[in-house]
Specification:
Elements: E1 11-15, H1 19-30, E2 34-38, H2 42-50, E3 68-71, H3 84-91, E4 95-97, H4 99-110, E5 116-120, H5 125-138, E6 143-147, E7 164-168, H6 171-175, E8 184-187, H7 195-198, H8 201-213, E9 217-221, H9 225-236, E10 240-245, E11 253-257, E12 260-265, E13 268-274, H10 284-299, H11 304-312, E14 322-327, E15 330-334, H12 341-350, E16 354-359, E17 377-383, H13 387-394, E18 400-404, H14 406-417, E19 426-429, H15 442-454, E20 460-461
Parallel strand pairs: 1-2, 1-3, 3-4, 5-7, 5-8, 6-7, 8-9, 9-10, 10-11, 15-19, 16-17, 16-19, 17-18
Antiparallel strand pairs: 11-12, 12-13, 14-15, 14-20
Length: 467
């Protein structure tokens, strides 16, 4: 745990008592402060009380006692309207921060120069975060991984000068971290997202920009207009900016040329890595992730040799184009995280011959936007509530069957792929749907796919696929 010594002898209000909220409250208490915590969910309040955290309805307390208000990132700060606690904090002129801000203050307090990489972007940030963490850990360095990727940042080990932090940051977390100052800050990309919480695309982009604006070295993907404008704006202020592109041969920065990662300086180009043969990093989107990871790892002192060694052994993230197993020449890929058509597109673009398992609880728009990939579909195996709708969209563009369940879809797809004459047919779960018609979440759905694949006679797990 990182004790929040920056709050010593202060009284702090906290709202949001999920797992990270309780961990944050405990870190503040460990740092010598008093916490008054609350949540709209009585069960969460009871859990906090059982963990020894003082609770009180924040509607009924005197806000003049508080020096700070720590808000869960899942609670609205501005849109569609501020949460009632935000109104109370602003009325009392109490600062509103989150757990990432607490982490930043602790690092600044004791070990300001400890290497710190922060990652954000609309798409790809979890994979990039995991890839950077894997590369750094593989190099033998002391690495701590947390933030939006699933580990509360205040539960990590305390900062030291040599300890490297790799922290994924959502827009919600950045909005609550005014002092965010990573050694290397990454902005991968920007597309419309979470506008219900940020109001406009412009405001969303402004929040994301704060992460790279506060960094020593700003690493910015320039394949969309918003991010490219941010890179230009930061450079005009004198910020050290490294541009990355998965599509453009840029003169200064890193870009992808097929599977090769290229570093350019004033037009002089050097190939620094190759993703050829690295199954966990297939596709244009993963080229962007790898470019950002390479740039960030170099920024905190890793050698090109160390980075390449880490790239080659990266297992990928569960449920995100996760290579599960091979059966003969057939590759089985779990992309259960693809809960809408846009999210399914990267996987569909990465393989030339696909036995596609799709369906679930349909999202608005269905799969019509994926029609450009239909020629790659050897056959589709449709599951869940969306099956009839998807069948109608596929029409005569690709063969399909209504499989109903993942188990049946895996069995039938494996049978058909075994007869395929191509060099590497792929059985791909990339549902383009929510999971809630049949599963509690996309993780459970991916687990069901993985279990069905590994139950196939002769299936050989890849990189220790989870069972």
């Amino acid at each position: 745990m990182i004790a929040a010594h920056s709050m010593k002898d202060k009284t702090v209000a906290l709202f949001g008592l999920g797992g990270s909220g309780i961990a944050t409250a405990q870190a503040i208490i460990a740092g010598g402060a008093k916490v008054v915590a609350w949540d709209d969910n009585p069960e969460s309040v009871a859990r906090a009380q059982s963990a020894g955290i003082d609770t009180a309805d924040l509607r009924q307390v005197d806000w003049k006692q508080f020096s700070s208000f720590v808000l869960s990132p899942g609670v609205p700060l501005t849109h569609p309207r501020p949460h009632w606690t935000v109104d109370l904090a602003r009325a009392a002129d109490v600062e509103i921060i989150g757990d990432i801000e607490l982490f930043v203050r602790e690092r600044n307090l004791a070990h300001k120069h400890s290497p710190f990489i922060a990652i954000t972007g609309t798409n790809g940030k979890s994979t990039t975060t995991a890839l950077i963490a894997h590369i750094i850990k593989s190099s033998g360095r002391d690495m701590q991984l947390g933030g939006n990727i699933g580990t509360a940042v205040m539960t990590l080990e305390p900062p030291t000068d040599a300890r490297v932090y790799v922290v994924e940051c959502s827009s919600y977390q950045i909005d609550l971290a005014p002092s965010l100052n990573p050694t290397a800050g990454i902005l991968l990309n920007l597309t419309p997202d979470h506008l219900d919480r940020h109001g406009t695309m412009q405001h969303y982009a402004e929040i994301k920009e704060r992460l790279v604006a506060g960094s020593e070295i700003a690493i910015v993907g320039v394949d969309d207009s918003f991010s490219a404008a941010i890179a230009d704006r930061l450079e005009r202020t004198g910020k050290s900016v490294i541009r990355i592109s998965k599509r453009l041969a840029i003169r200064d920065g890193y870009f992808a040329n097929g599977p090769e990662l290229v570093f350019a300086r004033k037009g002089d180009e050097t190939v620094v890595a190759s993703l050829a043969g690295i199954g966990s990093l297939r596709g244009e989107h993963n080229a962007q992730n790898a470019l950002a990871a390479f740039a960030a790892c170099r920024a905190v002192g890793l050698t090109a040799e160390e980075i390449n060694a880490g790239l080659k052994t990266f297992p990928g993230l569960a449920h995100r184009m996760e290579q599960v197993a091979r059966l003969g020449k057939t590759l089985f890929v779990n992309d259960s995280k693809a809960t809408n058509a846009e999210a399914a597109a990267p996987a569909l673009s990465s393989f030339p011959r696909i036995y596609w398992i799709a369906g679930g609880l349909p999202k608005e728009g269905g799969i019509a936007s994926l029609s450009g990939f239909f020629p790659r579909i050897a056959k589709a195996y449709l599951i869940g509530e969306a099956a009839p709708q998807f069948a109608a969209t596929l029409g005569d563009a690709a063969p399909f069957e209504i499989s109903g369940t993942i188990g049946a879809a895996v069995d039938h797809a494996a049978r058909d792929a075994a007869k395929d004459g191509s060099s590497e047919p792929v059985v791909l779960l990339s549902p383009a749907c929510a999971s809630f018609d049949q599963f509690q979440n996309f993780e459970k759905r991916g687990d069901a796919f993985r279990s069905a694949v590994l139950a196939l006679e002769g299936a050989a797990p890849i990189m220790g696929a989870r069972s």
